[in-house]
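Q: Second attempt. The first request was missing the SMILES, so the protein and zinc ion are both included now.
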Amino acid sequence: MAEDHATTRNFTDVYVCQKCNATNRSASGMPAKCRKCQSKRFRLKKKKKKTAA
Ligand SMILES: [Zn+2]
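A: Got both inputs this time. The predicted holo structure:
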């Protein structure tokens, strides 16, 4: 089912590198290092697209 695929995707965490702003996906926890600059500093990306207004 397509819906199952979407659910799996939503569980995948996306981290943004604080050095080069590259997005790094990780199934669980933080990535070991940035795929672009090998930095280990990340922040969790917010996935909400709806705005409060
Ligand atoms: Zn980076």
